[in-house]
Amino acid sequence: MTWDWRLLVAPGSALFVLPLAAVVGLLLTRQAGARGAVLRWWCALVLAAAAVAASKIAFYGWGTGIRAWDLTCFSGHTVLALGFWPVALALLVPPRRRAWRRSAAAVGWGFGLLIGWSRLPLGAHPVSEVLAGVALGGATALYGFHVLRDRWLPPRSTAMLCALGLLALLWLSQRSMPALPSERWFAAIGTALSGRDAPVDRRTWKL
Q1: Which of 182, 151, 170 is nearest to 18 (CA)?
Q2: What is the value of pTM for the model shown?
Q3: C-alpha gyration radius of the chain
Q4: Which of 51, 125, 146, 182 gets the highest tally of CB atoms within 10 A of its CB?
Q5: Of 115, 113, 129, which is closest to residue 202 (Cα–Cα)?
């Protein structure tokens, strides 16, 4: 029996991560004075996702990248997984329980790295792009830890979040994860902005 790496596509997908981040943030804003920190965390996630999109558009339009490293863009799944899961799991534990909070964050780091690793056997990215995603996603997570260091999800909110996550995973387990045609969009945007007749092809770019 072999492991199906496709099971890790959903937890790193923007269609799964960004709505969950929205729910976590909205639950946190019920606490006094938390709105500013949540907005900064959301901005960090959005900027990280925008950096992923920009790197892909630049490659399709102008062939940017480092050929020697086979590096053309950030791995989006890796960025979002590492930017979200360590912070979200840490928020399940009160700040005063530092050891448990760090342990929860470590589980999130491990899960995010596993999602990044899954991009290799799935053929979605080479090692260089996953490592670039680790760097960007890790920086996003560290910023999230900083701005939300005094925040946590109380038990009632935690139960609600876990229930939503479980329902989403159960739903996804019954059907394939819907996929946005984002690569086609990035290719079309890059081609239009650069004035090329066709997007840069990775196979010929590497030659």
Answers
A1: 182
A2: 0.90
A3: 18
A4: 125
A5: 129
